[in-house]
UniProtKB/TrEMBL annotation:
A Pfam family: YgjP-like
Domain of life: Bacteria
Sequence ranges assigned to domain YgjP-like metallopeptidase in this UniProt record: 31-226
Listed name of the protein: YgjP-like metallopeptidase domain-containing protein
Lineage, highest ranks first: Bacteria, Pseudomonadati, Pseudomonadota, Betaproteobacteria, Nitrosomonadales
């Protein structure tokens, strides 16, 4: 029985003057080309024998259908989220521009421009998560001298309804999308969970503890409630 060959790679190509990210899945047992557009974006299923030129020629031929489907899902999600070059992203409360360049060897943020070697959404999300770990750890170090006890662990979460959580064992988890928020908002969520290490409720003593750690917590608390949906909308189907 012949060995089945399978490969999966992230690629992008120019469609209607914009870069369109897609996932290419090749299989030696597949006989036909198929395009699937869903909440994860465009996925192309192709026979192993077809060249990249033939595959992308087929994609171009179906470009109108592809964009219509992408916009359909973006509308369903109350978002205009379609990955493309020069799109605007959020990072630490400010807008940055995505720049796709073959001259970039790795993802790097220079000023307000995020340089990426290719339009691979999962790699951009991985960069966000790496930055989230770095920033969250840095902010924890800032509050550490004021704590009676440090968290047993600080990790990332992708919970649908919570920005953070704290277990009875002192494990704090913060949503990775918070890296899009302002530093004040990040501090508020972190302090909120640090306060839960002493008070596993939202009683008077809990809020007193929050105020002790972050005296001006009310403003970022209010701001996060008002604009926090922006951070959830961004990249919501790529986590």
């Amino acid at each position: 029985m012949p060995k089945r060959l399978v490969s999966v790679e992230s690629r992008s190509l120019q469609l209607h003057d914009q870069l369109c990210a897609y996932q290419l899945k090749r299989s030696s047992i597949r006989r036909t080309l198929a395009l699937l557009v869903g909440r994860q974006g465009l996925v192309v299923h192709a026979p192993w024998r077809l060249s990249l030129h033939e595959i992308e020629h087929f994609i171009h031929a179906k470009s109108a259908w592809i964009w219509a489907k992408l916009q359909h899902y973006a509308t369903q999600n109350n978002s205009s989220w379609v990955w493309h070059n020069d799109m605007r992203l959020l990072y630490l409360g400010r807008e940055i521009n995505l720049n796709v360049s073959n001259h970039s060897r790795q993802i790097s943020l220079v000023g307000d421009v995020l340089h990426v070697p290719s339009l691979a959404p999962e790699k951009i999300i991985a960069w966000y998560k790496t930055e989230a770990v770095r920033i969250f750890q840095m902010r924890l170090a800032e509050f550490s001298p004021r704590l009676d006890k440090l968290p047993s662990a600080l990790s990332l979460t992708n919970a649908r309804t919570r920005w953070g959580s704290c277990t009875s064992a002192g494990v704090i988890r913060l949503h990775w999308r918070l890296i899009q928020a302002t530093m004040a908002e990040i501090d508020y969520v972190l302090v909120h969970e640090l306060a839960h290490m002493k008070h596993m409720n939202h009683g008077v003593r809990f809020w007193q503890r929050v105020e002790t750690l972050l005296p001006d917590y009310q403003q970022p608390h209010r701001q996060l409630r008002q604009v926090g949906h922006r951070y959830h909308d961004m990249c919501t189907e790529l986590s």
